[in-house]
């Protein structure tokens, strides 16, 4: 049996294995997680859903926080110490398959979007005015506090690009496809945008993967494939993740991202009641920590049912326990005033100061509202935010259903429109702890034309100039990337922690200063020491758990995709196992081939593979002549991890496209593994055998191997068929006339551990 499925109960669906995953340790795990993290989602979900069952409902259309029962009001002095810093982040969400196939989407939209990004951000067409972050007039209608002056830009404005413009991009499946069609000049232009920081690649995976159905192996594969392509062609490695559309979020994902070198992440689709609970306590930004991570310092002694001690008490835990006893029982974070919510020991002040950063901690930003489109990102009222999506027009597919249309910014309306937008920004900022605000500006397949790009960039540049020049508004706004936002937010949050620590050490007066304090010093005679500022980590709560099951409104749970279209989910797992098995065999064959070649020939072929030379595939020796198809198989697997692929939420013809791609990948992998087994087993032991030339053959592998895979599928939507092994008399394979026929069966274990299993097979007389 070749390429046996690395399956069965040994295939885990979590990234790590720990003894407390057993049922008898589950209660112990909950207690530990509550001690290690400020927010434990196991409790938060139960309390939130209970609140929903008592009659809370989000309105169907007006999905604003006011409709959710929140009162977001401000007095205006909240930004006296430091102005509100707003980063508007243009983006375009490109699904690699949903209503159309990935190729159809590319031809219809994605290639044009990438061309638009290049043209609208590139500075080659001439400098361009403002919209930048640093306040000041700079032309337009931002002349000064008294208003007046300047023109609004001519018709040729769309031909000029501004260095202040920014954009973020996520899906490498589309960027790599565009790269194949792009000229060298266009490629260099894209590299220049990335180097300058105008264009940030976020996530860098082949797709924006689902987090419920995907196996961690496939997640790592799609991240590796996308990031490898990105580094080879643009020379960058992302540090910020952008996941705005997966239907719920797994606790495994932040672990994998942190281990992959990411520092920050953003998520969107979580239960609306969980968003409400976190927003009330300004906990929408947090350190996402694994429940088992004790490196943050807060651990305690616990015993399982057998009485065995499972965790060791630490001094910090004992201090927290004494504080709990002093305050008369278990302290709560305040998420719910009636004794509900996440458990916190020692009070809010102590829990934020105690312990260091956990080894699995990653900063996470949760978007607070219903969706990632423009009506639900500028602030709490979608009817207002929709007016600042300047593509929307009545009578088209893009229009505002709340009764107010978007209107271009003019000299006559700019003051009123700016005040309306600033009001939304201020209300949204009240849900977060710092004076730094993130405002995404995009939607599905947006910025597909220069007309749209001009409408968005030009109108926002006019608004930025006006707002930044009015000091009374106390707002500093500009375009930005995700990196710009997280850098500013981390700095602001770290200074909050340093200020708190300075007060505790007596370096600052203990009078109550605004939480949003952003300056280095409260008192010119008593500045905050630089050591406190440089060593302070962001003042954010820690959270443990996952965000399943997702509901967007009215307790509508998105759980059907856990089991929908199960046949394709099974094919996905088979492809994962065969790809892993083929990768191992390829490495072994490569090693044998490399050791058999002169050093100069080996170096030449390695340069050919790495450099992407156009050398004819048929001239390459085995296994190098299969490398391209191995990459294609990996990309087809990665493509199916898309949150509309493995979930089964795409249209029927799109599912068929995914299926055909996976079937071709499985066929190629089986052919390669048959040839690889022949090369490794027969080539070395029998130099005169016909297969001995397999290592240097330019013939396709399946044409030279006597082996056949034990399981195959004849069609992309057909069942698995098992190979029947014949054992008749008179055969010539392995014997002479009149002797019993023989067949050689090779059992290949692609796992990293020994396996003891029964092997089944089919045989019949004859053949």
Descriptive report:
The structure is a single chain. By secondary structure, the protein is of the alpha/beta class. Among the domains are: 55-123 and 138-146 and 164-287 and 362-486, Alpha-Beta Barrel (7-stranded beta/alpha barrel), CATH 3.20.110.10; 565-721, Substrate Binding Domain Of Dnak, Chain:A, Domain 2. The chain is built from 19 helices and 17 strands. It has a six-stranded mixed β-sheet with strand order 1-13-7-10-6-5, sandwiched between helices. The protein has a three-stranded parallel β-sheet with strand order 11-2-12, with helices on both faces. Strands 3-4 form a two-stranded parallel ribbon. α16 (566-596) runs antiparallel to α18 (627-640).
Q: What topology emerges from the helices and strands here?
A:
Layout lengths: L25 H11 L2 E2 H13 L30 E10 L8 H20 L45 E3 L2 H10 L2 H13 L2 E3 L14 H19 L5 E4 L8 H8 L4 E4 L4 H9 L4 E4 L13 E2 L5 E3 L3 H12 L20 H7 L8 E5 L15 H4 L28 H16 L6 E9 L5 H20 L5 E5 L2 H23 L25 H6 L6 E3 L21 H31 L2 H13 L15 H14 L11 H34 L25 E2 L8 E2 L1 E3 L35 E3 L3
Parallel strand pairs: 1-13, 2-11, 2-12, 3-4, 5-6, 6-10, 7-13, 16-17
Antiparallel strand pairs: 7-10, 8-9, 14-15
* Main beta sheet: 6 strands, mixed
* Gross geometry: globular
CATH class of the domain at 55-123 and 138-146 and 164-287 and 362-486: Alpha Beta
Structural class: alpha/beta
Please provide the count of β strands. 17
CATH architecture of the domain at 55-123 and 138-146 and 164-287 and 362-486: Alpha-Beta Barrel
Widest β-sheet, arrangement of strands: 1-13-7-10-6-5
């Amino acid at each position: 049996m070749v390429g046996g499925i690395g399956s069965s109960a040994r295939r885990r669906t979590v990234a790590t294995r720990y003894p407390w995953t057993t049922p008898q340790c589950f209660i112990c795990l909950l207690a530990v997680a509550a001690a290690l993290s400020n927010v434990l989602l196991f409790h938060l979900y139960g309390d939130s859903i209970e609140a929903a069952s008592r009659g809370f409902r989000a309105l169907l259309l007006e999905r604003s926080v006011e409709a959710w029962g929140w009162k977001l009001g401000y007095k205006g002095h909240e930004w006296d110490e430091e102005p509100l810093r707003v980063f508007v982040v243009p983006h375009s969400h490109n699904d690699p398959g949903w209503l159309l196939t990935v190729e159809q989407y590319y031809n219809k939209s994605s290639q044009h979007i990438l061309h638009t990004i290049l043209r609208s951000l590139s500075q080659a067409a001439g400098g361009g005015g403002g919209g930048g972050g640093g306040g000041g007039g700079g032309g337009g209608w931002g002349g000064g506090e008294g208003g007046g002056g300047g023109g609004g830009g001519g018709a040729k404005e769309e031909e000029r690009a501004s260095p202040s413009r920014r954009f973020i991009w996520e899906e490498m499946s589309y960027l790599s496809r565009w790269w194949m069609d792009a000229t060298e000049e266009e490629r260099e232009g894209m590299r220049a945008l990335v180097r300058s920081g105008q264009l940030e690649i976020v996530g860098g995976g082949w797709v924006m993967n689902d987090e419920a159905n995907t196996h961690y192996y496939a997640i790592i594969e799609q991240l590796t494939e996308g990031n490898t392509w990105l580094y080879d062609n643009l020379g960058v490695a992302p540090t910020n993740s952008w996941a705005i559309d997966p239907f719920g979020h797994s606790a495994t994902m932040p672990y994998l991202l942190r281990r992959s070198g990411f520092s920050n992440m953003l998520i969107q689709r979580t239960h609306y009641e969980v968003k409400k609970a976190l927003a009330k306590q300004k906990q929408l930004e947090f350190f996402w920590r694994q429940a088992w991570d004790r490196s943050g310092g807060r651990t305690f002694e616990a015993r399982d049912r057998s009485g065995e001690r499972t965790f060791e008490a630490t001094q910090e835990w004992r201090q927290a326990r004494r504080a709990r006893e002093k305050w008369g029982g278990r302290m709560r974070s305040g998420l719910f005033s009636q004794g509900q919510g996440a458990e916190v020991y020692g009070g809010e002040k102590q829990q934020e100061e105690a312990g260091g950063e956990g080894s699995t901690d990653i900063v996470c930003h949760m978007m607070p509202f219903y969706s990632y489109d423009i009506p639900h990102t500028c602030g709490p009222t979608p009817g207002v935010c929709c007016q600042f999506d300047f593509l929307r027009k009545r009578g088209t597919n893009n229009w505002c259903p709340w009764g107010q249309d978007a209107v271009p910014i003019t000299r006559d309306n700019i003051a009123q429109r700016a005040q309306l937008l600033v009001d939304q920004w201020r209300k949204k900022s009240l849900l977060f702890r710092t004076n730094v605000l993130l405002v995404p500006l995009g939607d599905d397949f947006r910025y597909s034309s220069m007309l749209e790009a001009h409408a968005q960039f030009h109108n926002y540049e006019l608004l930025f100039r006006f707002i930044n020049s009015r000091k009374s508004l106390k707002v500093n706004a500009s375009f930005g990337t995700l990196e710009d936002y997280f850098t500013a937010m981390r700095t602001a949050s770290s200074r909050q922690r340093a200020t708190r620590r300075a007060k505790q050490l007596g370096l600052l007066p203990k009078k109550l200063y605004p939480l949003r304090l952003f300056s280095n010093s409260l008192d010119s005679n008593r500045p905050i020491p630089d050591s406190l500022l440089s060593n302070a980590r962001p003042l954010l709560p820690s959270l443990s758990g996952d965000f399943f099951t997702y509901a967007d409104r009215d307790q509508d749970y998105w759980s059907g995709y856990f089991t929908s279209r199960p046949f394709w989910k099974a094919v996905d797992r088979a492809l994962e196992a065969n790809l892993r098995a083929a990768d191992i065999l390829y490495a072994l064959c490569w090693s044998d081939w490399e050791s058999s070649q002169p050093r100069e020939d080996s170096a030449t072929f390695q340069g050919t593979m790495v450099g992407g030379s156009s050398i004819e595939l048929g001239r390459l020796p085995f296994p190098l002549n299969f490398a391209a198809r191995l990459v294609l198989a990996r990309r087809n697997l990665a493509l199916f991890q898309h949150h509309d692929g493995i979930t089964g939420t795409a249209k029927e013809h799109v599912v068929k496209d995914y299926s055909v791609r996976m079937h071709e990948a499985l066929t190629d992998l089986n052919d390669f593994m048959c040839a690889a087994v022949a090369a490794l087993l027969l080539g070395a032991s029998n130099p005169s055998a016909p297969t001995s030339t397999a290592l240097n053959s330019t013939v396709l592998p399946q044409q030279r191997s006597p082996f056949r895979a034990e399981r195959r599928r004849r069609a992309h939507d057909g069942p698995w068929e098992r190979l029947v092994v014949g054992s008749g008399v008179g055969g010539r394979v392995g014997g002479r006339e009149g002797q019993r026929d023989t067949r050689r069966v090779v059992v290949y274990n692609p796992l990293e551990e020994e396996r003891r299993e029964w092997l089944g097979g089919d045989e019949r007389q004859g053949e």
